[in-house]
Amino acid sequence: MTDGVERAQDRRNLLERIAARIPGIKGYLDRELRREVDKMQRDWLAEQVDRARGSLNGKVRDWSRAGSIAGLDLAATAEKALDRLANRIRHADYGYTGFFEAVKIRERELAALYEFDLGLIAMVDALAAQVEALPASAAEPALRELLEAITRADRRFDERARIFEDVTEKGGR
Q: Taking the complete model, does pTM exceed 0.70, yes or no?
């Protein structure tokens, strides 16, 4: 995440660079920038989950055309679970509080949230690989394993909400 923030800082326009020299404004601009990077990161991650869901839908079409319909109900459940996960990622709370918010989140806590979000990339990559590895027929054991992996990923994402709540309750202390 730090690399993304640093790249975004390098792309600031002249007015933003001048404003960053005013005491109190630099921190606000940096937090605003982190918010934008956080949103872009989560949107990208949600798109990766959507791609995995699209791959699963393609496999379902292939299975249907081949007459392999035994596990289609599990595949539909997995598809819905992937859609839910993508939307949870896309619409999660920002790791950010505004300039005038009563509760402030400090850079250290923001970094912890962003590191957690970066860890989600490996989880999503594993889900996508599992979808790609599904057999040529709608095999129920493989679909059950996929559904369990999606459920684990969804539970893991619950931890982000707990981290966010913990940070905001402490007020960045």
A: yes
- For residue 11, pLDDT over 50 is answered with yes
**Is residue 6 situated within a structural domain?**
no
Per-residue model confidence (pLDDT) at position 139: 87
Instruction: Report the half-sphere exposure of 151 (CA within 13 A, side-chain side).
Output: 8
In DSSP notation, 103-143 reads S---HHHHHHHHHHHHHHHHHHHHHHHHHHT--SS--HHHH
Cα–Cα distance measured from residue 139 to residue 132, given in angstroms and rounded to the nearest whole number? 13
Q: In this structure, what token pair is assigned to residue 60?
A: 């379902």
CA separation (Å) from 19 to 13, 130, 131?
A: 10, 47, 47
Q: At what angle do helices 25-65 and 107-132 cross, to 10 degrees?
A: 10
Q: What number of residues does the chain have?
A: 173
- Residue 105 in any domain: the answer is yes
Is there a domain that residue 47 lies in?
A: yes
Look up residue 64 and give its amino acid. Answer: S
In a domain, 29, yes or no: no
